[in-house]
Structures are given as C-alpha cells and as structure tokens.
Amino acid sequence: MIEMPGTGEGIAPTRLIVLTSRYPYWPGEWFLDPELAILSHDPRFSIEIAPLIVEGIPRAIPSTLVVHSDFPILVEKANRSISARSKRVFRRFLALCPWIGRADGARSREQRKHYLAVLGQVESIRAILRQMLLNDHRSTILYAYWLSRSAMAAALLKKERPELCLVARTHGGDLYEARSPYGFFPLRRAALRYFDLIAPVSCDGLAWLAQIYPEAKLEVHRLGTPDLKPSAFKPKADTITLLSVSSAILLKRIDRIIDALVLIPPDFPYLIEWTHIGAGPELERLRESARSRLCDRVSFSFTGELPNLEIHRLIAGGEIDIFINSSESEGIPVSIMEAMSGGIPVIAPAVGGIAEIVRDRINGRLLSAACLPAEIAEAICEPLWYRSSEPRIAARATWESGYSAIRNYQLWADVLAEVAAHIGENTRSMNKEASA
Description:
By secondary structure, the chain is an alpha/beta fold. 40% of the residues lie in helices and 14% in strands.
C-alpha cells in the first residue's frame, strides 16, 4: 500500500470529493453504500459528497462523511446567472476553452440546444467546485461517480488546476452513446484528456471507450456487494419463485418477462410466483398487462421501490429459485451481483458486461441480446437444472471471486491513493523546476 500525503502524523488526509447524481438521498445510487462504508474508515481520506439532486429522504451514512446538501441550490443559482448573461458568458467561455466549440456530434437544432444547456450547467458546476476549493491547499481528489456533467465540470477545473486529481467511474447509461436521449455526450472527447483515471465497471465498457477514445486513461474496476450470507436453499415443493429487480422503464424490457410467463406450457408441473422490485413510469402499465394476460397458475407482485435491507433479506432467504434480468443495455448490474451473493442462478441477456458475470449453464442462463420471451420461458422450464446444487454453488463462487465489496473497494481505495500520490509527485517536480 502506498503512503501518500495525509497518512503521516500531523498531516491532513486527502480531501476526496465524491460527485454523485443524488446520493445519499433515497433511492439514488444505493449501491454506493458499501463503497463509502469502506472508504469512510480509510484514514487516508476525508470524504465529502456533492449531489446534483437533493430530494427525498437522506439515507443513513457514516457520520464522518460531509454532505454538501446546498450544492444543487448553488449550481442552480449560478445557472440562472449564466442564463441571464448567456451571450457574453459563452463567448468568454468558448474563448477560454476553444476545444469546447467542437460539437461532438451536435448537428440538429435540438442537439445544439441540448449542447448549449449542458454547457451552461457544466460551467455552473465548475464555478461552484472552484469556490469549494478556494484557498484550500490540501491534496484533493475529485471523484465523479458517473461520467456525467459533474465529471465534465471537474475536467474543466482540472484544466485550470492540474495539481487536482480527477477520477471517474462509468457504468452503462453514462457510458454508451446509444443510451443518451440525443445520441451523444457533449464535451466528452475534449474533456477525457484531463482525467487521471476513468474506471469502467466492465471489460465491455473499457473496450467501448478504448475504441472511441484511445487517448483516455482506462482501467476496469468492478463494483462489489456485501456478503448476504444466504440461508440454505429451501425451494417450495410445488412452486417456482422468480425475482427481478430494476427500474420500470422501457430499457429494462420487463414486458419480456410477462411475455415469457404467458408462454409457460399448461402442463408445467409447478405454479409460478414472480416478484418484481423497482419503480418507474412503466410500472402501472406492466401491472395492468400482467393482470390481463397471466393465467391463474402465475402469481405476481410489483412492489415498487423497497429498502436495500428488505431486498437483501429476500435474496438471502433461500426461497428464490432464479433471478431474471431482461435489459436492453447494462454495465454489470449490481442486482445480479447481489443475487449471486445469495447463491441464486441468473437468467440474463448477453448485453453490456453481463457475459462477464453470467456463464451459460454454469451459474445461470445467458440468453441472446434480443432476450426473446421464448428463451426466457425455456430457461424457466428447467427447474431440475437451476434447483440442483451446482449452479447455486457456482453463482456464489462467482460473487466470491469477483464481486466482493470488501475486496473490490479496498483495492479501489488503494488505487485512489496511488493516483493521487502520483499526481502530487508530478506537481512537486513541476514546482521545483519552475522555481529553479
């Protein structure tokens, strides 16, 4: 482990500012909990959280963490000021940062409007981050949890202050251009040069970024989940129990699960209980579709959002036969990691990084990217396989070897410290050369 400024006696720990979407406000980014639980006990870091959205109930977090709950208010205030002076400000902005003038794919009128709106918010976030760091000479890491607007703003600040350390994770919706409503991410090509490290959570994500942005400094660093310590598997004698967890949005293709359950043959010797956890704009439509289309031999429950502890208890309870993911695009879903921590085999399509965790007929069933209802139905109709011990043992072993929160996040803490130490050493060298 590398010692860095902040670990010695009498030296302040490194300031780690985590830029989030809405964490710690429920239900945003709940999968940050285990990571910050580990980082918060690391004496090398003093952790602050800057969310862009402050709505809902804040979750319980370690008392040592500082939350800048006024961050979005300050950003919005700055954004209004910029909008009121937009022409003059953006002329100055583009003069200071000429590389931003490249539209990164913005061609239509709507795309240009989107690009301009992003520029405004990025400039606002940069201004507030600059203010947060004013007259603070501690070693500082800006850690963007998403490769998002906050990350782009941090890159602009890094351009001004190269002594800052800038790292980002990237997952799925913030990674693949096809998932952006406008088909591109403004500023990305120009900004990526300023990151000291970008950490995709999957090899698929790294390959995607490396192909399009070969200049980016990339390493895969996987997420992890706590050990759910599952109970022994105790299946119901006459019922197959299915679980799915995702937002109720079109991208997740939850209707494919309904279509698959319609296809279960009437002579299948088990009843089926399906629970879907997650809220979203499609939830009521999905409920109505399930009510009108599923037969009496299939019972279902759409719970909406549930607290993590309730989901974990369900996964660890030993009664879930199989976990289903039907998404059109993914990184590596945390829900799949959690299911495998509970020793539950997984049915999922070969999209994004899913093939890195689901191995066909070893710890689950890896379907085609199309995720056809017939494929899901066929996999559900193999209880002799997924109720046997081998796939359940393999699922648990997959989690233990690659997705343990303790191991992955302790390694991530060392990576953060190493990157920051390297930046600090380079900065000291440049200062010596400048003063020579």
